[in-house]
Specification:
Length: 201
């Protein structure tokens, strides 16, 4: 299985409506602290846009809603993985991405037989408070050796200028949040990311 090298992560369907038509092929909808009805509406709207533009939609955390809305991909953090019913997820045919930040979390992730593993933060990030120090490209190389051919996603503090080192370190896909969503011109920055990763598609 091959992941698109540019993995956009946003917190609303409106971002997806705004950026996916530019040529984004892989996007995660990551929404926290909203009620089920709002989440369902956001997932449904995002799926319509992604289906229309040939973009793979990944839903963060809310795997039951994703399953009910016909989304094929979910991403879980370590705490969400513990609480999730992996057997139901597998029977539904959902593809599963998992976060990892240290050796114990990588072992837990691999035991769940995911479809990809994410490692982060690679560089300092302002997205959220992290108890983990930046992992660096060397940790990517280590993870690459440990997971074999399983797709590896790098996340945390990435920008187009850092992509050559991240891909050289073994990442298959580079995930981005704030470098685009906090940019004065998100559309132009999205196009930069697409151009910077086009050779790996």
């Amino acid at each position: 299985m091959k992941l698109d090298p540019f993995y956009l992560i946003v917190d609303s369907a409106s971002w997806i409506e705004r950026l996916v038509p530019l040529g984004v092929r892989l996007v995660q909808l990551r929404i926290k602290d909203r009620d089920a009805a709002t989440l369902r509406a956001e997932i449904r709207s995002a799926k319509v846009v992604c289906d229309a533009h040939g973009c793979k939609l990944v839903v963060n955390d809310h795997w039951r809603l994703a399953m009910e809305e016909g989304v094929e991909w979910v991403h879980l953090g370590q705490e969400d993985l513990v609480a999730a019913d992996r057997e139901v997820i597998r029977r539904a045919g959902l593809k599963l991405g998992l976060s990892s930040h240290d050796h114990a979390e990588l072992a837990a992730a691999l035991a769940a037989e995911p479809d990809y593993v994410a490692l982060g933060p690679i560089y300092p990030t302002i997205l959220k408070a992290m108890k983990w120090a930046p992992q660096g490209v060397e940790r990517l190389r280590e993870w690459r050796g440990r997971i074999g051919t399983l797709p590896l996603v790098a996340i945390g503090g990435l920008n187009p200028q850092r992509l050559p080192g991240v891909f050289a370190g073994g990442a298959d896909s580079a995930a981005v949040v704030t470098d685009i969503t906090l940019n004065p011109n998100p559309e132009a920055r999205t196009r930069e990311w697409i151009a910077a990763t086009a050779h790996r598609r």
